[in-house]
Each structure stands twice: as C-alpha cells, then as structure tokens.
Specification:
Layout lengths: L1 H25 L1 H29 L1
Keywords: Membrane, Transmembrane, Transmembrane helix
Length: 57
Amino acid sequence: MFLLIITQLSKIVNTFYAVFTKITKQMMPFYEIFRPICQFLSTVIFFSYILSIFWKL
C-alpha cells in the first residue's frame, strides 16, 4: 500500500519535473537558475505530501 503511494507520487513528481524542464528549456538563460529551484520545490512538495499522509494515519 505504502509503496504504491510512493511510486504514484514519484510518477507525479517526474511528470511535473519533465513538463517544467520542457518549459524552462524554451527560456534557456533562465534554465540553469530555475532547475535547482524546481528540484528543491518538487522535493519539498513530495515530502510534505508524504508527511500529510502519515499525519492522517
């Protein structure tokens, strides 16, 4: 059950990241600035989501 949730979440994060990188590659000068920020944000969102699931249990 828990592994299923994690795999679903990682798929969501991966698709979000793929879309974001496609958009940022159109604006290449900003790409190098936004990439670490995006990685950080997706990680924060991912972990806060996991924590909220744990909180409800």
